[in-house]
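Priority: medium. Attachment 1 of 2:
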């Protein structure tokens, strides 16, 4: 069953939304321009952040991390550098270092949404599920109107086989974002696991009414047989 990629979706939007229309050649040109400017202004935090963002867009995570390291040597509490270094550390499979950056961010801003979500999903990825649930419970308490927070908690509850709780949280996520088909698909998965065919079929019909092709839903229909 497809898992929710909540952290990636949120973070990728934050990092790349302003650069999404650039071609790779344009990104390389912009990276070169930022690097050339840094030879003249090596202490510029803004230039290093710009260069690192192009490194990340080009998936040069080691180089991006080097830039964030340099920034944090000058400004240990730079929020952007901490946030994005955590992302690069995750891409480099340096989860312990990503965790430290998220924790530092949360000391500075206790209700930082992405940092709290990042911590929860790191714990989930490492199969520390009770810890992940504790962290995402804080996220829901701090952001009770966030569909992503409820969906993230539901995903962890599903891993813990807490199906009734997962059903409630996916339902809350759908209440907040009624047109999010991923949330509905995951709720259907919960209903199938609970052997609740009637509710599963009801949600499948809802997806088709929303324009989702029957062919793409066939694997879910097959699980009902």
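Attachment 2 of 2:
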């Amino acid at each position: 069953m497809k898992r929710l990629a909540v952290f990636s979706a949120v973070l990728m939007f934050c990092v790349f939304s302003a650069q999404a229309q650039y071609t790779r050649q344009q990104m390389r040109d912009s990276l070169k321009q930022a690097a050339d400017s840094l030879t003249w202004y090596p202490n510029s935090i803004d230039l290093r952040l710009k260069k690192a963002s192009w490194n990340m867009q080009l998936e040069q995570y080691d180089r991006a991390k080097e830039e964030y390291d340099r920034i944090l040597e000058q400004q240990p509490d730079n929020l952007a550098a901490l946030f994005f270094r955590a992302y690069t550390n995750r891409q480099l499979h340096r989860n312990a270092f990503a965790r430290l950056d998220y924790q530092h961010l949360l000391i500075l801003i206790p209700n930082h949404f992405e940092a709290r979500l990042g911590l929860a999903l790191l714990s989930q990825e490492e199969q520390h599920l009770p810890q992940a649930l504790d962290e995402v419970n804080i996220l829901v308490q701090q952001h009770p109107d966030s569909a992503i927070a409820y969906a993230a908690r539901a995903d962890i509850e599903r891993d813990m086989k807490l199906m009734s709780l997962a059903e409630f949280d996916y339902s809350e996520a759908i209440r907040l974002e009624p047109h999010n088909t991923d949330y509905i698909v995951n709720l259907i998965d919960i209903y199938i696991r609970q052997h609740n065919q009637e509710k599963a079929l009801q949600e499948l019909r809802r997806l088709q009414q929303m324009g989702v092709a029957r062919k793409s839903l066939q694997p879910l229909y097959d699980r009902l047989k």
